[in-house]
Amino acid sequence: MNWETLRTFGYEGAAEPAPSENERLFPARVVEQQKDGYRIISPAGLLPARVSGKFSFTAQRTTDFPAVGDWVLVDIANDSAIIRRVMPRRGALERKSAGLTSASQIIAANLDGIFLCMSVNENFNLRRLERYLAVAWSSGAVPCVILTKSDLTDDCARVLEQTQNVAIGTEVITATDADPHGFDEVRKRMSPGKTYAFIGSSGVGKSTIVNHLLGETVLAVSEVDGAGKGRHTTTARQMFVTPEGAIVIDTPGMRELQLDSADFSAAFSDVEALAASCRFSDCSHHHEPGCAVIAAAESGLLPEERLRNYRKMQKEIAYQEQRSQDAARRESRGRKRF
Ligand SMILES: Nc1nc2c(ncn2[C@@H]2O[C@H](COP(=O)(O)OP(=O)(O)OP(=O)(O)O)[C@@H](O)[C@H]2O)c(=O)[nH]1
Ligand SMILES: [Mg+2]
Ligand SMILES: [Zn+2]
What we know:
This protein is α/β, with parallel strands linked by helices. The protein folds into three domains: 84 residues, CATH 2.40.50.140; 159 residues, Rossmann fold (3-Layer(aba) Sandwich), CATH 3.40.50.300; 70 residues, Orthogonal Bundle (Ribonucleotide Reductase Protein R1, domain 1). It contains ten helices and 13 strands. Helix 3 packs across helix 7.
């Protein structure tokens, strides 16, 4: 048994099996999630793993299943492991679903930091960044924005400033593989024993950064063609330990992130703080008298654009809520018929 390896992956518990009902269960961490199973790091090393039949049977939601970063209790036999339990999460990066049909998904669990990667070229989109930030804040981890491929812009300062105006209260840094020091700012923001996830659209350079942090090419990097679709696009969520001892998770590019109203409030905490002073508690900040949000926008305290985005996202959430209500109604009608 090698408990030291488990500690490099963040384990802080005792070097002994977990006490449990007539079984010898070992603590382990999920380091990889693929379509058909998991890999875990355990006191017996790196092992393929799957959940027990009982686990699948009693799981209530998709989010009850293990995700990368989760601490689990496993049975070890014949060079493989069976996951019996997922320990309570400190927090999780979760992709929520709007309707009832598509299930929510845990992207990674027990994170200390999240690097939101966005490239300065075609992928640059501040609206999308606002959504990513909202979801990141709700994970319990501290987000940091990385503007990737900074070699592809002539005006890094301007892109940085535009991003900072949207990512309020969040650090924004730049990175590039065109310069040997291009990833120093990322490395500086990581501590040994802490866990960091890299998220963002496909092709923005997440695996490139993780490879540099690891000091070797562990991950295949996509060869982007004109359409931005690479051959080595990341397909699994995977966890690694850097030479400095930080734990990093590479993720496949995400297509969309849904928001719920709690995420929304976190992303627009500046607007929400102003809204507390509106005359009407149910102020929509569109035309009401005594609206502190409109007043702040008029005086220049709140950037015009920020208010516009706030309203746009308000609409998006109202639409999503409508959609899930419609789905619920359809489902209950369906049930009555049978
Ligand atoms: N110009 C430039 N190209 C880069 C930089 N970083 C990465 N690339 C290129 O961008 C392409 C995509 O990089 P990846 O690291 O595979 O991107 P990814 O975010 O992991 O993509 P997915 O795995 O599909 O989510 C590759 O061809 C890289 O060589 C950079 O700093 N500058
Ligand atoms: Mg990748
Ligand atoms: Zn108002």
